[in-house]
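It would be a great kindness if you could assist me with a short task in structural biology. The matter concerns a single protein, recorded as an amino acid sequence and a row of C-alpha cells. Kindly check, if you would, that the fold set down in the C-alpha cells agrees with what the sequence suggests. Thank you for your consideration; the sequence and its C-alpha cells are set out here:
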Amino acid sequence: MITKEQEQQIIDYLILHKLPVDILLEIKDHMTSQVSDIQMSENISFDQAFLKTQKLWESEFKMTHYSLFFSEEIPMIVKKIVKEKYNAILKRALLFGILSFGIHLLLIFLSADQEMYSDLFRLYNSCFVLIPFLLWTFNAKMRKYVKRNFKYKGRLFYTVYQYNLGLFIVCVNVMFQVILHENYYAFNFFRTEHQVALFPLLIALLVPFILHVMIIFVLINFFEHKKSLYKMQGFLNLPAE
C-alpha cells in the first residue's frame, strides 16, 4: 500500500520533469500502481520499487522538440499525449469548419446582391470574434489560468491546453482584416457571369475557412482547459466557480 508521503515523492519526481499538471496526475496514477505492483510481486521496499519504475519510464522523460506548438524542449511522454489530444481536437475543429464553410456558401446563394452578401459575410464572421470575447468576459475566474506564463507553483503549466490559447489573439487580428475587406470574388464567381481569377478566389474562400477552424480549435482547447481545471480543483486548491 502506497502511503501519502510516498505518493508525494512520486508527484515531486514528476514535477522535476516539468509535466503539465493534468498529464502529471494521469501518469502519477499509472506510476503509483506500477510501483505498488513491483513492490508486492518482488517483496521489496518502496524506494527500490520506485527506482525500478523510474528506469522503466526513463525513455518517456527524455527531452524532445515539438516546434509546432512548443518553443522549448518537452518530455517525450508530453509530446505523445499532446499529439493525440490535439489531433482529436483538430479533427473536431475541421468538422465544424466544414459546416461553417457550408454556411458561408449558403450566405452567397441567399444574398440578393453583392451588398447584401457583404453585410451577411461581415455579420457571420463577426460572430467568430464576438463569441470568444463573450466567453472570455463571462469566465472572469479563468483569465489568469489561460495566461501562457501562469504556472502551478511557478514551475508547471496547469494543462496541455494552456500552451496554444494565445493563438486566438493572432486569429482575431486576421479575422478583423477579413471582416473589413469586401469579399466580392466569391459572390462574383458563384452568382454572376464575371470572370474571377483563381488565386483571389481561393484566398477569399480558404482564409475564412482556415481562420474558422483555428478559432474553433482554440475554443475547444479553452473548454478542455476549463474542464481539466475543474477536475483538478482538489489537487490545485482552486476556488470553485
